């Protein structure tokens, strides 16, 4: 362990200097904001905004309907089930594969002797 001893007085000055810099930076941040309230960008505040109820505008946000969403999911699952059944039917009849281009082999992977 090759540590150099720092005098206690130097450590105190370093800590005080560091705390002073932090305090100054915080003060500048508060002064830039003016009110001391946290700053939130417009896009972030819009993301957290709740739609106004009863506003009567044509661009109102549609309400969430869990039952309709479940029905849509069930319908999509039925379509998917029919598609998978069709694939299973095609595969159960067997496949005929014709190799038209065989890649060259170095013989090491097939275990063949040179």
What would you note in describing this structure?
- The protein is mainly α and 114 residues long.
- The protein has a domain at 66-90.
- It is built from 3 helices and no strands.
- The protein has helices at residues 8-33, 42-48, 66-92.
- The chain is elongated.
- It starts with 7 loop residues before the first helix and ends in a 22-residue tail after the last helix.
- 0% of the residues are buried.
Helical segment count: 3
Task: Give the distance, in angstroms, between the N- and C-terminal Cα atoms.
Answer: 60 Å
Quaternary status:
single chain
Give the overall average pLDDT. Answer: 76
Tell me the structural class. mainly alpha
Beta percentage is under 5%
Low-pLDDT runs of 5+ residues are: none
Helix % is: 40-55%
Gyration radius over CA: 35 Å
The arrangement of helices and strands along the chain is: HHH
Query: Sheet bearing the most strands, described?
Result: none
Shape: elongated
The total of beta strands comes to 0
């Amino acid at each position: 362990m090759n540590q150099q001893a720092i005098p206690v007085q130097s450590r105190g000055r370093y800590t005080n200097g560091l705390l002073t810099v932090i305090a100054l930076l915080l003060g500048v941040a508060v002064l830039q904001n003016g009110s001391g309230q946290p700053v939130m960008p417009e896009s972030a505040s819009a993301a957290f905004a709740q739609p106004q109820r009863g506003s009567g505008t044509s661009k109102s946000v549609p309400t969430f309907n869990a039952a309709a969403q479940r029905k849509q999911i069930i319908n999509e699952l039925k379509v998917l089930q029919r598609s998978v059944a069709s694939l299973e039917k095609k595969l159960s009849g067997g496949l005929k594969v014709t190799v038209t281009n065989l890649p060259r082999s170095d013989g090491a992977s097939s275990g063949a002797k040179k």
